[in-house]
Amino acid sequence: MQDETPFFAERLQAAALALESLLSGLLGPAAQADEIARPAHLLEAMRHGVLNGGKRLRPFLVAESTALLDGSADAALRIGAALECVHCYSLVHDDLPAMDDDDLRRGQPTVHIAFDEATAILAGDSLLTFAFDIVAAPETPLSDRQKTALVLALARASGHGGMAGGQALDLAAEKTAPDEAGIVTLQAMKTGALIRFACEAGAIIADANPEDSRRLRAFGEKIGLAFQLADDLLDLTADAEAMGKATGKDAARGKGTLVALHGQAWAERELERLVAEAEELLAPYGTRSAVLVETARFIANRRS
Amino acid sequence: MQDETPFFAERLQAAALALESLLSGLLGPAAQADEIARPAHLLEAMRHGVLNGGKRLRPFLVAESTALLDGSADAALRIGAALECVHCYSLVHDDLPAMDDDDLRRGQPTVHIAFDEATAILAGDSLLTFAFDIVAAPETPLSDRQKTALVLALARASGHGGMAGGQALDLAAEKTAPDEAGIVTLQAMKTGALIRFACEAGAIIADANPEDSRRLRAFGEKIGLAFQLADDLLDLTADAEAMGKATGKDAARGKGTLVALHGQAWAERELERLVAEAEELLAPYGTRSAVLVETARFIANRRS
């Protein structure tokens, strides 16, 4: 595996800027120029939660999956914004004292620190709700059939059978360590579901045939697994550094991960295998899939 | 104004039973008979939050608004279930320690008491998400155009320009008392938006013409105002009883209400006026609107 090319880094950054610009507009003063009073304090908290300088990897996957099949870039940007609202609402709620109790995210105070707990709960709720507003809004240049399919897929990726369900399993895992199958299920739901949705969304936006849809979903599943494995490896490295030792079993975290079960060498081989399989899935598209393939590598190799 | 007829009470109760039955099925073991693992603990918390023996007034309004215009009763029941999920998610989150900090609701422990805070946050998030799942699901017998319109209207009634925004204004009102216009805005958002949506939903489900849609929306606005005024009167009575005195200015609650500003006699006259205006709006439908008119009276006269 190799580091990303300058071209890829620029493309990822350009997509992140376009997304920030859209979200800032949707949650900005101009969006309030109607008869509805949107409390300024709540809007500020929503902006704090979502305009956080993230890499915007999920919206990038929506954009590139859509581009692979010649779908509308404008629609992909809006669906990416909706997806990022869901991702960021989950971060705002996960950071709450009753959940992970984190005071900092990307070096900035978390929403309940910068505002207060009640405002953070409401800002998260509002970001989640706004995601569906964005999908269904007239400004999203898709058919009602596509919008309905996207609402359903996003709700299922986010809800009790997806991300929120995975988060509940994660809380339970702090008390009773899950077995390997349990870890796989937890991770597929908690982080995998939104990443898979990102790729599936491209197929829906581009009105893909069943074969293309199946390939993009399968690609999303592979890179969702890779994302989590890379995350676990990063945690291990961070722990090792923090503990001043070069190896570790991750037992200190009190939660099982596949890396903790099988070791770092296994995880690195598994990552290579997942990226190769993801690449293989997109082979029928030839060089058109180059950016998505590079995204898979980026996900596996990322160091933050 | 008169008490509701036995016929009305039976109809309201039958609708509540049908709704509980649908929601119980949607969140029951049968709904899990697929490949997706839905954490049992989270599902139980969602059921605790939503299967709470409420009057189900909002779903009833969806059903009766739909019936007025000969729309699909099956669709109305499912949209009512989605709306109730949104209403109940807001109760679960409002009861949290960081918000209203309530231990009991309808005589039962609130979700964060019966489970824990983290589970209550996730159960609320999941109920909100599930609402959009229900609207968009293939089982909802509506066109994609209708589903898209309902998703958008529900998201706007619930989000930062609707219910959640009203809740944020309500929190702010505990620090700085709003003026009369501020109170009206707060209430229109916090409680009015979902009630208006309930009536608007009937028009969307029945594919109503613009004139019928306008009437149902206006009707929803009137009874939303009446609902809040009746609530404020109930609070006053409850406070008076708790404080052992028969009159009161509601100043003890630390929040302004229109009843506190203008007094009980004014509020009772205003309620009568709102019900009369609501009735007038539906006059073109003759006796077909009898149940909705009785619902308006029920909302104004309710004692719990």
Task: Please describe what this structure looks like.
2 copies of one chain form a homodimer. Chain A is mainly alpha-helical and 304 residues long. Chain A has one domain: Farnesyl Diphosphate Synthase. Chain A is 69% helix and 1% strand. Chain A is built from 13 helices and 2 strands, in the order ααααββααααααααα. The first copy, chain A, has helices at 6-26, 40-50, 57-68, 73-94, 111-114, 117-136, 144-158, 163-173, 180-205, 210-243, 258-262, 264-281, 290-301, and strands at residues 104-105, 108-109. The longest helix of chain A has 34 residues, at 210-243. Chain A is globular. At the A-B interface, helix 2, helix 4, helix 6, helix 7 and helix 8 of A face helix 2, helix 4, helix 6, helix 7 and helix 8 of B. Chains A, B: This is Probable farnesyl diphosphate synthase.
- First CA to last CA of chain A: what distance? 17 Å
Report the biggest beta sheet of chain A as strand number plus sense, adding barrel if it closes.
2 strands, antiparallel
In terms of quaternary structure, the protein is: homodimer
The CATH superfamily of chain A appears as: Farnesyl Diphosphate Synthase
Order of helices and strands of chain A: HHHHEEHHHHHHHHH
Annotated CATH topology of chain A: Farnesyl Diphosphate Synthase
GO cellular component, one term (chains A, B): cytoplasm
Cofactor (chains A, B): Mg(2+)
InterPro entries (chains A, B): Isoprenoid_synthase_dom_sf (IPR008949), Polyprenyl_synt (IPR000092), Polyprenyl_synt_CS (IPR033749), Prenyl_diphosphate_synthase (IPR053378)
GO molecular function (chains A, B): metal ion binding; prenyltransferase activity
